Amino acid sequence: MTWHLITDGSCLGNPGRGGWAFMLQNGENKDIHSGYEEKTTNNRMELQALISGLKYFSQQSKESLDVTMDSQYVINGVKSWMANWKRNNWQTAAKTPVKNKDLWMELDKIIPSMSLNFIWTKGHQDHELHNIVDEAARCAADKHASCTCK
Questions:
Q1: What is the CATH number of the domain that holds 125?
Q2: Per-residue pLDDT band at 1 (split at 50, 70, 90)
Q3: Is residue 31 part of a domain?
Q4: 6, 130 contact by CB (below 8 A)
Q5: Which of 53, 54, 57, 87 has the fewest CB atoms below 10 angstroms from its CB?
Q6: How far apart are CA 37 and CA 48, in angstroms?
Q7: Which residues pair with 70 in a beta bridge?
Q8: Catalytic sites, residue numbers
Q9: Are strands 116-120 and 29-40 parallel, antiparallel or unpaired?
Q10: Residues comprising the binding site for Mg(2+)?
Q11: Cα–Cα distance list, 52 to 13, 46, 125 (Å)
C-alpha cells in the first residue's frame, strides 16, 4: 500500500495568524492533523505542515512516501536549493541569510532518512484531498485551534 502525505499552510495576512495541516493516507485510512501560530508567514506554515507530517509519518512507517503540496517554494527548496544553502552556511546564492532557516534546518535533519516523492498540485483546484487539508489549515489559522481527525 502506498503512503501519501498531503500538506498545506495558510496565513490570514502575510505575516499574520497562520495555520498548517497535513493528511496522512494509506489506503482508506486518513489521519488529519493541524496547528497554528500567531505571527507567521504562509511559507513558514507550508514548511511546518511538511515537517509535522514527516515527523508523524516516521512514527508510522519507514516506507517510501508520496508528498503532495501546492508550495513550489518548499518543493524547490528541498529538491534544488537546500544542498547549496547548507554548503554556503545557510546563505543564498546572493549571500543573504536563508529565510526560515530554523525550519529548513529542522527539515534537513528529517529528510535524509526518508524516501520521498514530491508532487506539486495547483492550489485551490479540484484535488479533493488537498482541498480538505487546505480547509483544515485555514480553519486552524482562523480559529486558533489544532485538530486531529481520523
A1: 3.30.420.10
A2: confident
A3: yes
A4: yes
A5: 87
A6: 10
A7: none
A8: 8-9, 46, 70, 124, 134
A9: unpaired
A10: 8, 46, 70, 134
A11: 22, 10, 24
